[in-house]
Amino acid sequence: MMILVTGATGSIGRPLVRRLRQQNQPFRALVRTPERGRDLDCEVVVGDFDDPASIETALAGIEQVFLCSPGAEPTPGQQPMIAQQTTVIDAAVRAGVRRIVKISVLGARPGGLLAEGAHAEIEARLEASGLDWTIVRPSGFMQNFLTGAGAFTSGGDLIGAYGQGRVSYIDCVDIAACAAVLLGDDLGNRQRFVLTGPEALTHTEIADTLSEAVGRTISYIDRPPAEFADNLTAQGLPASFAADVASLYEGVANGSAAEITSVVGDLTGRSATTFADFLARERELLRQWPPQHYR
Prior knowledge:
This protein is an alpha/beta fold and about 300 residues long. It has two domains: about 5-140, Rossmann fold (3-Layer(aba) Sandwich), CATH 3.40.50; about 140-170 and about 195-260 and about 275-295, UDP-galactose 4-epimerase, domain 1, CATH 3.90.25. About 40% of the residues lie in helices and about 15% in strands. The protein has helices at about 15-20, 50-60, 80-95, 115-125, 145, 170-185, 205-215, 225-235, 240-255, 265-270, 275-280; strands at about 5, 25-30, 45, 65, 100-105, 130-140, 160, 190-195, 220. It has a seven-stranded parallel sheet, with helices on both faces.
């Protein structure tokens, strides 16, 4: 049962590759350049979501696809991601792939804001493709606080517009563990799984936990959503995009990201990783704070 892992060098893809190797599961990893795949220690194939011919080649002999877009900056409408994932879905149909396990997002829904609406559109296209499918909807990634996707001041304080809203951040290693189970055992056909961490924390609590891990005081600075939107428009982003971001922040402040599920434990047989345990595991990356990309 050959699997193609897309997004193989990302925060979910790398731990998934490790798990599939450990399980002796036949798979190949899609990478954009040979250099990016050298440290994966597995079969790789070079391809790009923007190059349909390369995706056709990568899908030869594949039965299942793990579909996860490469990391990218948020864009108004998320149109590039829609086009790219649709390219993979359409190519999979032509190649005779049986099933796609897709990484989506918590809150995906038709008409949703930014990635929520984009992933819902891709989900609908996948459902209509005739392929078997499984959709995984994770909450926000704990890794965002280490990779630069989180928002910090130049001094290393956490900044946002979430009020005291709680977020059930999840460790990407847990997402990968669930994906490996779903791919390996062919579970969850035509089902959606909402993955979260085991706790829903305010960003003030997150800052406190970061302070303990780093050994210095990190504060959470809260700003009104409209102020964040104004900052985005001042940077040249469209006003409609900034307004959507502000609405997302307001939703989080009102509890839209606070859901906690038991799915990680149900699928893997072990508890989801707490934020404190995640930071303890990644302590080498915390030795200098803030990380270089925040400076």
